[in-house]
Structures are given as C-alpha cells and as structure tokens.
Amino acid sequence: MTRLSDALEVRDSILPLLIGRSRWEETNIGRVLVADAGQFEFLYRTPFQREVLHAMRRSHVQVGLYKQLEYGLTVWRCYHKVLDIEWDHKDVRVLSYRRRGSWESELAAAFSGKESS
User: Which domain of life is it from (predicted)?
Assistant: First the structure.
C-alpha cells in the first residue's frame, strides 16, 4: 500500500465515527468541528467554514502557489500529529501521515471505549 492509500483508509474509517462526537469550537484559527476519543483529538474542516491556513502555507497562498482543498482532517495522538489530510471532489493531499503502527489499533480501541490506561 502507498502512503496515500494508507492515509485514505484511516480517514475513511474515522469520518463515520466522528458523527455524534464532534462539536463546534472556536479556536485560534476560527470555528471548527472538533472531537476527541481516548488520547486522540480530531479537527474536521468542511467547505462551509473559512479557510484554515497554517503559517507556512499562508505565504504560498498569497503568491498563488497553494490552494487549500475544501475538506480537511487532522488527528493528534498525545499532542503529536498522526494524520493531516485534505481533499475535494478531484484532489487529495496528505500533508502529514505517521507510518502505520500501534496508534491505529489504539484509535480503534478509543472509539470502541476499550482503550487501555
């Protein structure tokens, strides 16, 4: 499997689980949907919110080198980013993805309520 296919598989498994768990929250980057499960935190961005640009990409946007895609999902485990992906109807960008490993089974356990302490 490729980095892209791995990241898409993780994204596709997370999104349905966020339904009913997410809440709107005002952050330093604007109003976004957030959720948490166990040691994991999630930020989900949709086209119905203003663009959330990180400082490094902001300069690229200003000179026309970067266009943020409509949807985005960022996942942190214990404050370390394990997935940052964005997509729209024709493109997908994996901005950050931690290699497959134990964090994925920990994520599944967190959503099932069976995480270990």
Answer: Bacteria
Residue 8: which domain range? 3-112
Unique residue bearing structure tokens 């949907």:
33
Query: Are 38 and 115 a contacting pair, CB within 8 Å?
Result: yes
What per-residue confidence (pLDDT) applies to 27? 77
Q: Is residue 117 part of a domain?
A: no
The residue with tokens 């950050």 is 96
The number of domains in the chain is: 1
Confidence band, pLDDT 50/70/90 cuts, at residue 76: very high
Closest by CA to 7, choosing from 71, 85, 79, is: 85
Residue with tokens 């946007």: 61
